[in-house]
Structures are given as C-alpha cells and as structure tokens.
C-alpha cells in the first residue's frame, strides 16, 4: 500500500466516513452509531421472522436445495471444511521455513492455491444465500445501515425516518455495493497498525490516554479493528520470543507464529489439567501414561500432548503390532533401539 492511500485510510478511520461518487454526485458514507446499530439488529430479527412465515429456506433447507439441484455436493462440503485447516498448517510450515528460501516459495504457491480455492468455494456456497431467511435478513440490515449513514456532501441525510430500506431505490443499491466493495481488508489494517504514521499516533495514546475521544461502545467497526490489530502487534513486540522484522511484515508467516503460540498455550493448559488429575508422583514421572478418553474430542486433546518423537514411536509400535500380532515391551522397535544405545554406551 502506498503512503497516500495509507494516510487516506487513517483519516477515514478517525473521521468515521468516506466520500464516494454515485452517478457523478458526491456523497458521504458514514459508519453507523450505536442507535443505528440497535435498530439494524431489530430489522434483522423482524426480517428473519417474516421470511420464516413466508416459507423461505433455513440454512439446512437451503443446503438440501443446493444438493438436489447439483450446485453443491459432499466433496465440496468436505473441501470447504478441510481447507481452513490446510491453510493453517501451511502458514505454520511457512514460518518454520524462515531460513529455507526455496521451500518457502513452494509453500507460498500451495498457500495461494488453497486460499483461492477456499474463496471460490465460499462464493459458490453463498451464491444462493439470498433465498434463505438469514440472507434476506442480513441484506435488509445492511441496506438500513448504509442508507442511514448516506449523506449529501453538506452532511444532511439522504433519507429521514427508518422505513426507507423497504423501498426499491437504485441509489441505495449502488451505495450498498460501494460500501461492501470499499471495506478495508485485514491485510491493510495490519499494515496500517504496524507502520507509521499510525504507529506513532497509537504510541501517543499511552501518555494522552485517549484515541478517538468516545466510549468504547461508540467506536466504529473500523476503529475497533485498528485498535485490535494495534494491540496485537504490541503484544507481539513485547513477547519474549518476538519474531524477526521479516516475519512481522509477512502476514502469513506471522499467522504461522501466532498459531504455534496458540498451540503451545492450549497444550500447556491441557498438561496442567492432566497433572492435576494424576496424584501419584511415580505415575506422573513414568515414561508412558495411559489416559482413558470419553470421546473423540478428548482423545484428540490427549494426543496433542505427544511430541513428534512420541508420535513416531506410536506409529512404529502400531506397525509392529500389525505385523507380529503380539509383542512384549522389550521387543518393541523403540525399546530395541534404547537397549542398543545403552549397550553401545556401555562398551565405550
């Protein structure tokens, strides 16, 4: 993002509006205040209930409609569920390949394909959302939010009252499209949050103790977003294992670092919980501890406590048992390795 665009975005975030042209005429699109957001949510609920009465699809019925008309299928559903997990893993691998240039290039290509595929599938799955109760209610809410914030250049509102969204207005349709198309992306928010001139403004708030001069409930969505991203970067800079500048400036690599930090916290929390359940010191200090899981989710939590070495040992043991049926502990592949290492050490 060039400096001029960055400064324009910062000004827009601070003022809470941006200028746009519709059919050659200049309008202001203002972010909604708390009163407007409250009424918009009422409109959503009322619209949803009316759509239900009129017999529009709920989300399950919409999916069934898409399946029966061959616009969606099980394979696509599996993909759209799995891809976010794949993208997360690729981001972790990208961070772990910080000093492996060629490997990083390959991972970036795979990540780009995964993101594009997910984006295409997401659009495809939501293409018929306008036929659902949720889709109609969401659109009515958006029309109200945009229309309530649409003003002439002198600041006067285009529409007075709260029923304008019920009418078919070309101006409202155009303004809604412009509002959606001109949303600031997360990538842009992140760049603004970690660089000047915003970074300097953000630093000043610590001594000045104010940023936008309004209570938190009156912050616009864009103001809340920049605060959240700025706070996140503060926490990263202050972290004892803060990543390099190269990683900080690369959203995907930084996501990989954040994912690893989150996994560490989760693992530590599970370990602490299990340690509290095991009262016997001898069991706690054993090489292997067997814990009975009540379900698949609990089994996954327990499995996450195993490091890479432990997982390899489990895999080796499983393969050995499949091959031989029953094996004593001392005949397991890892036990044989341990015995050989002890013998080699004793022979030196």
Can you lay out the helices and strands and say which pair or pack?
Elements: H1 3-15, E1 17-22, E2 25-30, H2 34-54, H3 59-68, H4 74-96, H5 101-126, H6 133-149, E3 150-152, H7 170-181, H8 186-194, H9 198-208, H10 221-238, H11 245-248, H12 251-277, H13 281-284, H14 296-303, H15 308-324, H16 333-346
Helix pairs in contact: 2-6, 4-5, 4-12, 6-7, 8-10
How helical, in percent, are the residues? Answer: 55-70%
Number of helices: 16
Q: What is the count of β-strands?
A: 3
Strand order of the largest sheet: 1-2-3
Summing up helix and strand content along with how strands pair, one would put the structural category as mainly alpha
Order of helices and strands: HEEHHHHHEHHHHHHHHHH
User: What gap, in angstroms, lies between the N and C termini?
Assistant: 63 Å
Keywords:
16 helices, 348 residues, three-stranded antiparallel beta sheet, 3 strands, mainly alpha
What does the model show?
This protein has 348 residues and is mainly alpha-helical. Among the domains are: 14-183, no CATH class; 286-346, no CATH class. Helix content is 67%, strand content 4%. The protein has 16 helices and 3 strands. The chain has helices at 3-15, 34-54, 59-68, 74-96, 101-126, 133-149, 170-181, 186-194, 198-208, 221-238, 245-248, 251-277, 281-284, 296-303, 308-324, 333-346; strands spanning 17-22, 25-30, 150-152. A 3-stranded antiparallel β-sheet has the order 1-2-3. Strand 1 and strand 2 (25-30) form a beta hairpin. Helix 2 (34-54) packs antiparallel against helix 6, helix 4 crosses helix 12 (251-277) and helix 6 (133-149) packs across helix 7 (170-181). The model has no long low-confidence stretch (mean pLDDT 89).
